[in-house]
Design goal:
alpha+beta; 35% helix
Length: 86
């Protein structure tokens, strides 16, 4: 499974609801307009799965997370570690 970072231009509670419904055990909200999703698909197919093609949620970017570093909640690092091992 890959971990993807999803970023939108502004907070999208409607997109959060779609992510929750499609990936109930495989997502994390990082901050408003920022999510992590663990999925076995490409960034393009993830956008399609979310219904985010053609601007449905405004500007959106989906990027595979290959390496990371920073200062955040311990739960986030634990989640990333678990999802990388799948």
């Amino acid at each position: 499974m890959s971990v993807y970072l999803i970023i939108t231009q502004s907070d999208r509670p409607d997109l959060t609801e779609v992510i929750k419904s499609k990936f109930p055990d495989d997502y994390r909200v990082i901050a408003p307009a920022q999510w992590l999703v663990s999925a076995d698909m490409t960034p393009q197919s993830l956008c399609t799965q979310l219904g985010a093609n053609e601007g449905a949620f405004g500007r959106i970017m989906v990027s595979a997370v290959g390496s990371y570093y920073g200062w955040h909640e311990k739960d986030l690092w634990n989640w990333l570690s678990l999802k990388e091992k799948k």
